[in-house]
Amino acid sequence: MRIRVLAAAFALAAVSIVGAAAQQQPAPAAPYPLDSIPAQLPFNTPYGGPISLQRAEAAVGAVIAEANKRGWPENVAVVDSGGNLVAFARMDGAQLASIAISQHKARAAATFRRPTKAFEEGIQKGGFNYLVTLDDIIASRGGIPLIEDGKLIGAIGCSGGTASQDEVVCTAGAATINK
């Protein structure tokens, strides 16, 4: 009986300490309140015609060159403005799971008209956990829209390293289009 009383007292003290610590931590600051109504629609780049195979392959080549320079085996995918695969490359040694992830990043960047980093930041920094309930979201850096003459012509997605490594090599590929 005495052991049960001590165990219950210990458990109550632990819950109190954890509860007090949780109450002291502030909620993450949202970049804008959920109930705000922006004057302009964010991420409203108009869709353009599809990227050509030649330009998509040039973007893939730029990613491969940057990844080789850094010693990071990557998978890279380029999709058109409708999210359809145009070009893909898997570097020797790139992990197999990243094949689908690179394509998913590219599709999400094209169809949602924003870098996939926006979803990562929305969940981690903005507390917008509802984003995980949306179809086809991928909340990891490495998906970047390709914009030409103010219109989205496709997107590029990279996967194989950490999210920040994927973003670095993906930026090199996007730079062939996004001037």
Features:
Beta-Lactamase, 5 helices, 179 residues, globular, alpha+beta
How is this structure best described in words?
A four-stranded antiparallel beta sheet has the order 2-1-4-3. With 179 residues, the chain is of the alpha+beta class. Residues 10-22 have low confidence and may be disordered. It starts with a helix and ends in a 5-residue tail after the last helix. It has helices at residues 2-24, 53-70, 97-111, 117-124, 163-174, and strands at 75-80, 85-90, 143-148, 151-159. The chain is built from five helices and four strands; from the N terminus they run ααββααββα. The protein has a domain at 53-174: Beta-Lactamase (2-Layer Sandwich), CATH 3.30.450.150.
Radius of gyration: 22 Å
Portion of residues in beta strands equals: 15-25%
Reading the helices and strands in chain order gives HHEEHHEEH
The CATH architecture name of one domain reads 2-Layer Sandwich
CATH topology of one domain: Beta-Lactamase
Strand order of the largest sheet: 2-1-4-3
Mean pLDDT: 88
- Report the sheet with the most strands, covering strand number, pairing sense and barrel closure: 4 strands, antiparallel
Tell me the name of the CATH class of one domain. Alpha Beta
User: How many H/I helices?
Assistant: 5
Helix content: 40-55%
Write out the CATH superfamily name of one domain. Haem-degrading domain
Shape estimate: globular
Structural class: alpha+beta
Number of strands: 4
